[in-house]
Amino acid sequence: MRDAYVYDAVRTPFGKLGGALAGVRPDDLAAHVMAALLERNPALAPGRIDDVVWGNANGAGEENRNVARMASLLAGLPVSVPGTTVNRLCGSSLDAAMMGSRAIETGDADLVLTGGVESMSRAPWVLPKPDRAYPHGDVTAVSTTLGWRLVNPRMPAEWTVSLGEANEQLAVELRISRERQDEFAARSHRLAQSAWEAGFYDDLVVPVTMSTGRGRLDDVARDETIRPATTPDVLAKLAPAFRPDGTITAGNASPLNDGASAVLLGSGPAAAAVGAEPVARVAGRGVMALEPQRFGLAPVEAGNRALARAGIDWSDVGAVELNEAFAVQALACIDAWKVDPDVVNARGGAVAIGHPLGASGGRILGTLAKRLRESGERWGVAAICIGVGQGLALVLENEDVLGGRRRAG
Fold it and tell me: CB 3.0-4.6 Å disulfide test: which of 28, 109, 273, 380 passes with 103?
């Protein structure tokens, strides 16, 4: 088996629900990052890409079911480059990278363009088809933006609680206080703002300027939901969102967002085609599932399994990118791993940056690869929780530390 490597990663800024990117179709957002990644690597002939594997949690609207294929055509890739869309909800684009890396390791591909997209602003309403012609009565349109819809009545009620209620249960079970959650959320904003000011995201984020149904956009260059003035005291004034006496608020949970991310994966010998050296090796992968309402804890065992497959443990890990669906969920995973909190999301997390479902896995993977190169740490973990009780994790090994020893295979 060969090794698989990360060669490059880009993403759009993440826009807020109804914000600057709301006028941009999801297939256009996806095509934008695909084209940007190819433009950054001019030596790479687009026809050398063996497959496009793309994450998307919706698919019911302008994504046209297979947004990977739609966006690759819009981005100008040759019609001979195939594409498939992955839906593992919030983990979709990390799952896409995991699938792409497996194809490279087995020799089925040399170069795979992976990533994901979500426009939560443009997610459509859906109606169930009637059981018979000419039905009487009203029908309710159901939003596909987030969460359960058209639930099968055979599903146990405890499984189908809202994402927020599920995490309120987690806060009670693990005794994670409102104060800890608010402190963690304020940290996310502070670190994200500092990272932007330091230029960390300058080469990871490609501005969006394109024609839309609303006219031509000005450059959208930065994440819209970062609030530099956020403090624990400010957050403490917000009302609970899911329980009258609850701990989760709009301030300590990730917002609803629009955005896209892309990650170029390849074999060692693919460096010649890319015209650049890889930045990190995919060293281990893990997946886990448990009761749907306990999805916030699923990354714990997914991370443990990924580390075991990489042949290391948490004491070796110098950087963690954990998607912050909720502050309480992130804290629960950090506590369970007993990892140094300072190495987790050191450049901000989803509470501040945002969580466009299908794009978040690619964001954390690209951020992790850059953090490893910047810090010189050898090992890093990208992990994400997924609604309906799942979690994913992927381990990267810093290629600078490897020194090219593995790339011949």
Answer: 109
The residue behind tokens 């839906």 is: 87
Strand 83-86 relative to strand 111-119: parallel, antiparallel, unpaired?
A: unpaired
Q: Which two three-digit tokens encode residue 291?
A: 């009761």
Tell me the CATH number of domain 5-121+160-397, given options 3.40.47.10, 3.40.190.10, 3.40.640.10, 3.90.700.10: 3.40.47.10
| Phi, psi torsion values for 396, nearest 5 degrees | -110, 145
For 99, the token pair is 């699938």
Burial class (CB in 10 A: 0-12, 13-18, 19+), 242: middle
Integer Cα distance of 173 and 179 in angstroms:
16
Q: Any residues with CB less than 8 A from the CB of 224 and at least 6 apart, and which?
A: 13, 14, 15, 16, 19, 20, 257, 354
Give 366 or 409, the one with higher predicted confidence: 366
pLDDT at 247: 98
What is the predicted pLDDT for the residue at 400? 85
Residues marked as catalytic: 90, 355, 385
- What does the alpha-carbon distance between residue 369 and residue 371 come to, in Å, rounded to a whole number? 6
Q: Look up residue 49 and give its two tokens.
A: 């890409």
Mean pLDDT within 74-87 = 98
Q: Where are the alpha helices (DSSP H) in 256-316?
A: 271-274, 298-310
Cα separation of 188 and 18, whole Å? 22
- What pTM does this model have? 0.95
Please enumerate in sequence order all residues whose Cβ is within 8 A of that of 167, keeping only pairs 6 or more positions apart, or say none. Answer: 248, 253, 296, 325, 326, 328, 329
What are 340's two structure tokens? 């140094």
Cα(87)–Cα(53) distance, integer angstroms: 11
Residue closest to 162 by CA, chosen among 147, 173, 150, 151: 147
